[in-house]
Amino acid sequence: MYLGAGDHYSHMRSGILDLHDNKSPVKNKDGVYSMNLFAEQAQRVILSHNASTPLFLYLPFQSVHGPLQVPKEHKKNYRMIADEKRRIYAGMVENADKAIGNITQTMKTAGLWNNTLLIVTTDNGGTPSFGGYNWPLRGKKGSLWEGGVRGVGFVHGKMLQRTGVRCKELIHVTDWYPTLLHLAGVEEKSNSSALDGFNIWPTISEGVPSERSDILHNIDGGSAAIRVGDMKLLLNVGNQQWYKPPELSSGIRKTKKKSRGKIKVALYNITADPNERQDLSRTFPDVVKTLRKRVRYYKKGEMPSGKKLPDPKAMKLARENGFWGPWID
């Protein structure tokens, strides 16, 4: 997909097809649910692969993501959930579980499973308006509160030296790149110190403390958030609430007033208070000062955004061709 949030069945976005096989538009998959479509394609890749050579497979499913759509057989399994959005959401999660199960079984069939490291992870928190809740964490997708930035995941493979454990060390998405390079036996280049990520394999596999001491959540757009050790500083952020899923609410669900305004400064001990309920900024002004200094350090290395405004020529060409694709300005 060149865009996102397209129809899971028609693969259309804004009335225009957005499904490609490399650079070629795919026009014969109307009605095929995207989760199943991507899983089946991954299975074909696995079965056609020569097991004597390495394989790297990156599979970003469209689910669980809006629009809320799911095959009927998965939705009906959650009739006990009264809220319609949550019912569909639960079905989408089940469908994702099934797809991952089918892919792992195919790896076993192809003789790859025993020498494969499987990483399942997410990119952000859920959106309540689309059935995704992060309770008891504060906030939602798009926010700098833990409900927006904290992601869950797991790692599976026989090469792990410890299993069945939880890793509570600091890990950031940028750490996957140097970690995967290490696992693939690729020697890091001399300028690897310029990378934002760390090789976290010793942390995941052996329980060695993470080399990472901080996580920069954001410094652009006027808002900032940074985590250093146990402490997290937020600057000029939206005052997000805690969104409790309807099935955990007793009695009639009341509509809460939306949080308004911005919080200029807030400080939390994320280890002791992961739900961000006790602001410590006035209690520890010295910590606020130290973390502000760290934000300024990152600000010095900030690069101009590469994002551009939508080009009307892209829409014009897409309508003419009947599918989204690259264009020349």
From TrEMBL:
This is Sulfatase N-terminal domain-containing protein. Residues 21-186 form the Sulfatase N-terminal domain. InterPro entries: Alkaline_phosphatase_core_sf, ARSB, Sulfatase_N. It comes from Porites evermanni. Coiled coil: none annotated. The keyword Transferase does not apply. Its cofactor is Ca(2+). Belongs to the sulfatase family. PANTHER family: ARYLSULFATASE, ARYLSULFATASE B. Keywords: Calcium, Glycoprotein, Metal-binding. It comes from the Eukaryota.
